[in-house]
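ok trying again, last paste got cut off:
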Amino acid sequence: MHELVQYLSDGGYLLLFVLSVTYALRWRSQLGVDIALFFGAIATVVVLAIVSRPEADSLPRAVVATQALVIMALPYLLLRLLRDLDGVATALMRGVETGLALSAAVLFVFAPPYPGGVVLLLVGYFVAVQVYVFARFLRAARASRGITRSRLYCVASGSLFVAVVILLAGVAEMAPGLEAALTSVTALLGLGSAAAYYVGFATPRLLKRAWRAMDLREFVELSSGAAGMEQMVSSGGLVEALEQRVAGMVGANRAVIILWDEAAGSLTIAGNPIAVPSEQPRSFFAQRVFREQQPRFTADATRDDPANAEVYRTRGARAIFAAPMTFGERRLGVLAAYGPRPSLFAEDDLELVRMLAGQIAGFLVFRELLRQATEMRAQERANALREEFLAAAAHDLKTPLTVVLGEVQLMQRAARHDPALEPWRERLEQVNDESLRMRRLISELLDASRGEHEGFVREREPVDLGQLARETVARFAGRHHRVAVDAPSVLVAGDGERLRQVVSNLLENATKYSPVGSPIVLRVETKGAEALMSVTDEGIGVPDGERETVFERFRRGSNLNGERSGGMGIGLYLCRRIVEEHGGDVSLRSRLGVGTTVTVTLPLLEAAAEEAPSRLGMEGAPAYAAPSAGGGR
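nice, full thing came through this time. structure:
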């Protein structure tokens, strides 16, 4: 049994040596070299013990001394790991190196078996340094979080087991009668140290997943925000809390979430762009990670990126882990964790940073969607309040306006029969026209307030679109514009009053936003099974990028100046809604400063009847023949 335990322990240490050499070759850092040296020293002791086991009593003195010296070097090699990981005072390093040199002198001066005093000094030196190393690893574990903490606890435990093994070996050396009793105990402790170091330095995949699951669960709980989603969106300190948690989980001094600013085309930290554009070949470490979309680790950024070495020194960022934050195809930024010294478990910490970067990317996208949803709810509430106000205001305005119209029309009738009132006839006509215009605007306000919830079109019947266009143009005669009409008879199925409103709104816009005296052309024609009506002007035009937004409620072109500030941005919105309810479409072509053409497309009467005859009330009705495009010219 004792021999089986010993073989298991020896095999474990030899495996750790192979893994540590592989790690050192992959990461090429001083820390990796020191880990390989530590397990290389243990492997040397194991190999020498295996080779000399059959003739242990007849080994040359130099071989015995060398084997003992390698064992005495173990605490010093662990101290070098601590120096790389957490820093060790220079005086302490020099003291331990001096103790190791004196141990070498003693081992080669005295012949084995060594005197009791020599054994006591050597064991005392070894145990003292090893216990110090154990205490420092223990402190580092308590200062860490998650998987790093668990692994450092295992490394501390392995170091303590080694100290106890050497202590018991010293006791057995000084009291040979206890050797048989202590052999099994030291073998078990040796196996325990190998197992603890294996779990710490080369954590099995299954155990690693379990530890990571615990880390990620805590991280998800934090990013979900226990205070509620609304507070999460507005919490400025949540990002800082996430950064602190990431730093603790990977054993780094600090972590930072670097976001991609699409508008500026740069990575930013807390809204401030970092200096070098990400497309330049020589750029910061995080920018290379973002550009290449691959997680990376550097044990010495000042060495790998000398052009920016001073920046890394200023921020204490010598060892850096960085992973891209990407959600689907969307690149959101980079998660970076850094510190003045490399991590003891760089490969696994880099994988953890990659997983956390993905989690943060999902959180950022969710937070943005939540913010947009909050804004949309606020906008919907504001729209509802505005619609309620407009509806109430329009209803309140209609009553006094009706009285004004009635009085004006009475005065007009009186003026026609009283020559003394002849000079007022033109002014009364103007007041009447403006009152009618105001009534139309109030009706449009009411339409706009109900437009998202109710339809506009009521009863449909055959409508001569050409005749309707000509009649509407006649109302615009004498308004300082020449309106040319090319409108043959074209039959469509629709609500005549609503279609008249469409024509009126298009002509109103054309006259309002065109120079006085400039031509306006209204054309009606057919194309296949569709009727086309277009209104063309030579006005100010619509800016690029706004040719769709001008059809939204209360939206107007950004190029409208104070002189043309009349209007509420309702006309085109109503046109599109009315036409779409007729099964048609409205499109706009425009050149800024040259003019605009708005085209209305409607199904011809025959096509509309075939599509939905019952809707038009036309079952059994005679078919109306739509004239050809040139039939009315």
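cool. The CA atoms of residues 127 and 163 lie 5 Å apart. The chain is about 60% helix and 15% strand.
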